[in-house]
UniProtKB/TrEMBL annotation:
Native species: Caenorhabditis japonica
Cleavable signal peptide: 1-21
Domain Peptidase M14: 123-415
GO BP annotation list: proteolysis
PROSITE patterns according to UniProt: CARBOXYPEPT_ZN_1 (PS00132), PEPTIDASE_M14 (PS52035)
Entry GO terms, CC: extracellular space
Protein name: Peptidase_M14 domain-containing protein
Record-linked InterPro entries: CARBOXYPEPT_ZN_1, Peptidase_M14
Length: 452
């Protein structure tokens, strides 16, 4: 009698430690569609894939080195999609999902452990752990780091900005936000690593004296928690709509610039549902309001996403349209890519976001650019391949953190040199003062002389 009870108890312990695959939405039979688009004919087909298939498949990412596009195909559509592609003479592969992506470590007990930079480098954290980490950093560096609440998510979680080097002056700002797409987990770690590194290392004090950094490490906390506990592939927000079986909108289609035009869906079950109207999502409203309050000072903006190893520049709402200063954006984008490559030879490609495989309107990068933020980008972080996709193995987090940090640092340096208020060193200001004194002296002297 006692024996089975003990066994049950034992199993219970294991379940507390790890989320088993069975906690998650079941994706048995789903496939990753891989299409090699090197041929121009196939590339055009891929760009028009929605018309060809009669629906827009869930785009996961692309491997630009192998020129492959990756889509997530529902179980019931696999056979039909495959047939359609074959009929159109499109070579493709239907790959199985790597089951490792469903083995997620469950949250640990917050009361018993402090989240440290080690955790940020070696594992994915839940929302509470992320918040605990930024609180600790703010307490550790009270003069450098300040937290600012931007608003609440649909389910009432705080959207928090971390302001680093905010000394009340009018320094230019670089704004970074992460994880508007819930399943793109690596973006949160990159943002937290950035916060900690810039705030803690004395080497960056000089940079921070002329540029301020604002980082929003989790722009979609509801979606993220849902992707950790219920559905690994969840991308959208968690808003509910009356009379609909599907909830959530793609927050990166919800920004008020060419809202609802291209590369979006108006049907609520789509992964790229753009919402009932622009800024319908409270997360987007909070972010746009916060940015607009200080938009004249924000000179750099990066939205962190995954995956694909790409640095994307506007415009992305349509094809073959570029801002007038596009050469500057390309140049700085390439400098960012070069800085990443120098670390470990990881290659990021600098491309226009609309000219790739699909334009998408209502995204944050376009909106930021439209508000006059000069250097506005979306970065698709590692990996480049679809083997693990959004679940980059935890032992690779640290490297991606360090690489992305280099890219962001390049942008900060560029903003400093273009927009930074020249720092007046004590000796320089002393000589400036003495020059003014000398001038005054001369004026009085000449006046005096004249009068005399
Ligand atoms: N993967 C991102 C998305 O689908 C890319 C956004 C790029 N920006 C753009 N304006 N299209 O949301
Ligand atoms: Zn994304």
């Amino acid at each position: 009698m006692k024996f089975p009870a003990l066994l049950l108890f034992g199993a219970g312990i294991i379940l507390i430690g790890f989320a088993s695959a069975s906690d998650y939405k079941n994706y048995d039979g789903f496939k990753i569609l891989e299409v090699k688009y090197a041929e121009p004919r196939v590339r055009r087909y891929v760009q028009e894939i929605e018309q060809h298939l009669g629906f827009m498949p869930d785009f996961l990412g692309e491997n630009w080195k192998l020129q492959q596009a990756h889509y997530f195909i529902e179980k019931d559509s696999v056979a039909r999609v495959s047939r359609q592609l074959t009929a159109n003479n499109i070579t493709h592969r239907m790959r199985d999902l790597n089951q490792n992506i469903f083995k997620v470590r469950k949250r640990r007990d917050l009361e018993n452990s402090q989240v440290t930079i080690q955790d940020v480098n070696y594992r994915y954290l839940n929302y509470n752990e992320q918040m605990q980490f930024i609180n600790t950093v703010a307490q550790q560096f009270p003069n450098t780091v300040k937290l600012q609440k931007l608003g609440n998510s649909y389910e009432g979680r705080s959207i928090t900005a971390v302001r680093i080097g905010d000394d009340g002056t009018n320094k230019p700002i670089v704004w970074i936000d992460a994880g508007i797409h819930a399943r793109e987990w690596i973006s949160y770690n990159v943002a937290l690593y950035l916060i900690y590194t810039i705030a803690s290392e004395p080497a960056y004090r000089d940079l921070l004296s002329s540029v301020q950094l604002v980082v929003v490490p989790n722009t979609n906390p509801d979606g993220y928690e849902y992707s950790r506990t219920h559905d690994r592939m969840w991308r959208k927000t968690r808003s509910r709509f009356t009379n609909s079986r599907c909830g959530g909108a793609d927050a990166n289609r919800n920004y008020p610039f060419y809202w609802g035009t291209k590369g979006v869906s108006h049907s609520q079950c789509s992964e790229i549902y753009c919402g009932t109207r622009a800024q319908s999502e409270p997360e987007v409203l909070a972010l746009t309001n916060a940015i607009q309050r200080e938009e004249t000072r924000i000179k750099g903006y990066i939205a962190l996403h995954s995956y694909g190893q790409e640095i994307l520049y506007p415009w992305g709402h349509t094809m073959r349209q570029y801002p007038s200063d596009v050469q500057d954006l390309i140049q700085v984008g390439q400098a960012m890519a070069a800085a990443v490559k120098a670390i470990n030879n990881t290659e990021y490609s600098v491309v226009n976001s609309g000219d790739g495989l699909y334009p998408a309107a209502g995204a944050s990068d376009d909106w930021a650019k439209s508000r006059g933020i000069k250097f506005s980008y979306t970065i698709e972080l590692s990996p480049i391949d679809d083997e693990t996709g959004f679940t980059l193995p935890e032992d690779r987090i640290n490297q991606v953190n360090r690489e992305a940090f280099q890219a962001i640092q390049v942008l900060m340096i560029e903003v400093k040199s273009r927009f930074g208020i020249p720092k007046v060193t004590s000796s320089a200001s002393a000589s400036a003062n003495s020059l003014i004194l000398l001038k005054r002296l001369r004026t009085t002297m000449s006046r005096g002389l004249g009068r005399g």
